[in-house]
Amino acid sequence: MQGRFKRDGSAAAEPEPRGANDRGPSAEGQAGEGSADRPQATSKAKAKANKAKLPSGPGSRIALRNWRISTRLVSLLALPVVAATTLGGLRINDALTNVDQLDHMKLLTDMTGKATQLANALQEERDRSAGPKTDGNPGDDAVVASQEKTNQAIDAFNGATRGVKPTDPTMVGVQTTLVDITRQLNKIKQVRQDSFDPKQSDYIARSVNNYDGLINALLSLSQDMAQATSNADMITSTRALATFSAAKEYASIQRAVISAALANKKGPYLSPNDQQYGREAYDAENEAIRRFTAIRGADSQQLLQAINGGNADITTAKTYTDRVFTKDNGIKNEPKSYKDWYDQASVKLGEMSKIEQTLLSQMEQKALELRDDAQQDAIINGVLIILVLGISLVGAFVVARSMVRSLRRLQDTAQRVAQDRLPELVKQLSETDPQDVDTSVESVGVHSLDEIGKVAAAFDDVHREAVRLAAEQALLRGNVNAMFTNLSRRSQGLIQRQLSLISELESREADPDQLSSLFKLDHLATRMRRNGENLLVLAGEEPGRRWTRPVPLVDVLRAAASEVEQYERIELSGVPPTEVAGRVVNDLVHLLAELLENATSFSSPQTKVKVTGHALPDGRVLVEIHDTGIGLSQEDLASINERLASPPTVDVSVSRRMGLFVVGRLSLRHGIRIQLRPSDSGGTTALVMLPVDVAQGGKKPMPGAVPPAGNGAPGGNAGVAGSAPRRQVPPAAGQQRP
Prior knowledge:
mainly alpha, 64% helix, elongated, HAMP_dom, transferase, histidine kinase, phosphoprotein, kinase
């Protein structure tokens, strides 16, 4: 079944020429009364009465309510915009900039702390591995434990770096450093595997350098922190931390170099290159401590007290380091266990780690203090701006209130007219004589001289014009409906006489070929009568005759099939033994006939249109009409189902799809639900759901009883609702009517 409904009666479906519009004098008179230029239609007394009902005039031109909307908006927005731009632009921008910088600083501080912990872990792993690996014991527990600690520090550092946004322009330097760190961390396994292998030349300096590149990259993050702030104290703190961390790395290098040299299986040995490397680290440490002292100033002495002679072990380790790196064969002249040296050197590195943590803590505390100050400034600035805006809004409220009242009244009136007044008026005009309906228009009540008052006046004009047009349309629809009804009644009478004459000829004809032609002529007349009934439906008329008794559903289906051109393709099966209420029989036959006509017209002539019925437990009955056409798209099905559920107003488009409109009108008249959906076997299925009050038409007739023609169920040759009589075609015709 196609979504297109057959154009029943092509000549009747086409719109008539404008010149042939048969409008009566009453229609012209009504149009004349509703026209725009009708100043003579109202008397002076009515004009005075309407004028007396109107509110007071617009008042003085300088009154606030008569200002132009542009003037009001400028006055409304000027003061708060100027105040917010002047004060907010100068203060809030600075506060937000500081807060944003300190947010970056907090992120970098946390990340620097994790980087420092990772650097410490790498230093400890390198220094602890130097002795055992050189001694040929890479699986030492201390080595494994230090590597595991490094792995945990790597995970913690990676977690801290996830907060860095690649698109942040202030983090460009940090991003570059992180890329370098990530690249080197990916090689940590190879670095561990190749470190401190005595079979390689200069293995000590090479192994230490492999770790040193990664450690220096981690320590350089503290230098990148200076990019995130313009505060001098924070910049000084970051420089001091970076300098001291570098000194700690140089001290760690010395510990690793001497540990590896003492662990040599052939005896303590330090090659000239390794000795030179260690000496450079020793000198670099002293230089870094000097620069740190210069950066920190007076409080540096207290921080460095422990490593500047305040601890005997540190002093002894420093003296030993100086001899090893400055004297030839110094490491052989004063041999000791690499474990003893590691423990002694670790005392100094432990104190340096404490100083490093102190610097980090001071930097974090400073960042928090600066952030709190920035937030406090932002709050103070915000309070000041709120006060200024509050004062501005109080003044703006006075200006805006005059606008809001008029606009709200106009809005409420427009909504009431659109949602209640006009729909109710149109409904009254469509149901009663337009002359009996009150078509007066209530004014919005806004009569100011500004744009709002002009819009209100224009809306009143639109309202009056809409009411006038609605009255004219209602009168025109009434005339058209009356014309439809008159033409349909005349056609029905002529067609009924034609059917009677054809029936008389059929009863006296014995020739099978002639009888078959008479059957076709009878069928065409029946379809013409259905087209006439469509006009009655378009006009909103009820059927003239109704059945007084319930009619079996199977007879209703047969009567509907008899009105279809290709009735021989319709196949009934599984129809439940239910009865249809007599008041619905005529309309239901008409409705089903339209659906069956559509199914047969838009499916292959070689296929059958199957009609089945199902009685539901709640008393309803579902009738299904299946065809095997080409089917419909989902969009077409949705559009057709919407039209069936809510038939549109009668216009030219309805005449082109008269069947669709008639089915929708008839289904709404009796509460019948109709829906089209794709068929499982291809094509389309029409579902007709008969409600309980329609499907349960009363007591079933006695078995074998045939109601008399005119007021009983269709049977024998009686037909249904004036349908073409159901006759058996002689065998010579080769077909049988349903």
